[in-house]
């Protein structure tokens, strides 16, 4: 695989990636530093650049197991994107991310250690504030202290991969089209997840709203927020 | 994999680990060593040691025995000047000084190492003066068998700055002393600083190469410093004039001599008005008068570290604060006390 020649020192690479991640995320926090380093380590284990070259990016899938600052930093550094199907969010509440090379099948799960939090004040003894200590310490701690790594096997189906939609099915209850094998089959019939009882929302009812015919070529809309017309709301169908 | 068998069925099997015997106040050590083949005669003694079952071990490919683990751990913990023998007793390996010098402990790496569940290492304090053969620390793996990956991770942590323990040899310095003060310079009182400082320097294996007396005048003190440098002194100690009186001009003299770096004040009692300066690469220590009264002061905490090649700055002097209070015991037991044992 073609590799770009990288003449930067690792500190320069880290600082540049961190600055970019902070700009994208909105603030600097300990989770950003952990996320940048987590992605740098995961990519290094796959023998990828950070950020990956274009050919490497086409082979990369990243699973993030938390929706916290670290997750954004992992996505920024790895350049994995939800919309390209290269970024997968699995809601485990664990400070971990898995980096998969589709070509080789290699996958490494990088887990942030709880000990690293306790050690922040040991590595940055002159900081009196825990957050400041974490910011300083996470920059200098070696990977072996910050992370544990598992080599794992990730079983992906063609339905999980980037590329065009492989299959479309229509929910027999609500008529919604479901893509990529995400339907639920009961008694031989296909349902979307909400209709099958696995939705994250309840009490759904369809509504009408003001200025329903607005499009980017239209002037306005007049109001920043779109309020629900009482009559339409009352007439909303469930 | 580990299997438990009844003691009476253990005849002919090999012990998976040392079996410890403790006779209170008399003996603690291995009664039987790992690898010993259990015979009928051993059964009674093992029962007296409280053993009714024994382990039989069948290691998987990714598992490691505590003795092999201890050897790996000792190997990565021990840096320059640290020796150990691959002969674990009760799963533990001791680390010894391989030469005289100053013990250096990577406190951060040690803490990170000890947060790995399967391992431990305990050491003497950082910056302790040690003699060849002295015990510095001990390490062991905690489970009888464990996953190899845990030991490899602990080993990587220990290696983050090379090793966790090292004994740095003390350099042989050619020290120049400048004894300041009009009262000594004009012969009103007899100097007691020169013999006190000389004894401390010689006890650390260095020599006093030159001695100058200077009055409380900055220019004269600067001149004495320059004269020492021209003589090839690579360590300077100045005494007196370090306090707050108008006659205390030693600091001005040091600055006048061209100090490139100067840190006045150490978080140590006695020795708050201690000073560390550098003239290029040559360290200069300003010793306050308390060194005449107290056996051990800030000087005794800093001088061995300077001789071991450490550069002492404001941070190092500040970190002395924790543990920097001498108890002023009627009979001084330093270094077997808390003085100077902070970070």
What class do helices, strands and sheet pairing of chain A give? alpha+beta
Quaternary form? heterodimer
How many discrete structural domains of chain A? 3
Order of helices and strands of chain B: EEEHEEHEEEHEEEEHEEHHEHEHEEEHHH
* Helix count, DSSP H or I runs of 4 or more residues of chain A: 9
Walkthrough of the structure:
- Chain A has 238 residues and is an alpha+beta fold.
- Chain A folds into three domains: 10-160, 60s Ribosomal Protein L30, Chain: A (2-Layer Sandwich), CATH 3.30.1330.130; 164-204, Wheat Germ Agglutinin (Isolectin 2), domain 1 (2-Layer Sandwich), CATH 3.30.60; 205-238, no CATH class.
- Chain A is built from nine helices and nine strands.
- Chain A has helices at residues 10-25, 30-45, 54-57, 69-78, 115-123, 130-140, 143-146, 193-196, 230-234, and strands at residues 60-64, 87-89, 96-101, 107-112, 147-151, 168-170, 177-179, 184-186, 189-191.
- Chain A has a five-stranded mixed beta sheet. A two-stranded antiparallel ribbon of chain A has the order 6-7. Chain A has a two-stranded antiparallel sheet with strand order 8-9.
- In chain A, strand 8 and strand 9 (189-191) form a beta hairpin.
- In chain A, helix 1 (10-25) crosses helix 2 (30-45) and helix 5 (115-123) packs across helix 6.
- The N and C termini of chain A lie far apart (54 Å).
- Residues 231-238 of chain A have low confidence and may be disordered.
- In chain B, 41% of the residues are buried.
- In chain B, a hairpin with a 2-residue loop joins strand 18 (275-279) and strand 19.
- In chain B, the strands form six sheets. In chain B, strands 15-14-16-19-18-17 form a six-stranded mixed beta sheet, sandwiched between helices. A four-stranded antiparallel beta sheet of chain B has the order 6-7-11-9. In chain B, strands 10-8-13 form a three-stranded antiparallel beta sheet, with no helix packed on it.
- Chain B folds into three domains: 2-57, Molybdopterin biosynthesis moea protein, domain 2; 63-168, Aldehyde Oxidoreductase, domain 3 (Alpha-Beta Complex), CATH 3.90.1170; 174-319, Molybdenum Cofactor Biosythetic Enzyme, Chain A (3-Layer(aba) Sandwich).
- Chain B has 343 residues and is α+β, with helices and mostly antiparallel strands.
- Chain B contains eleven helices and 19 strands.
- The interface between A and B is medium-sized, with 13 and 14 residues.
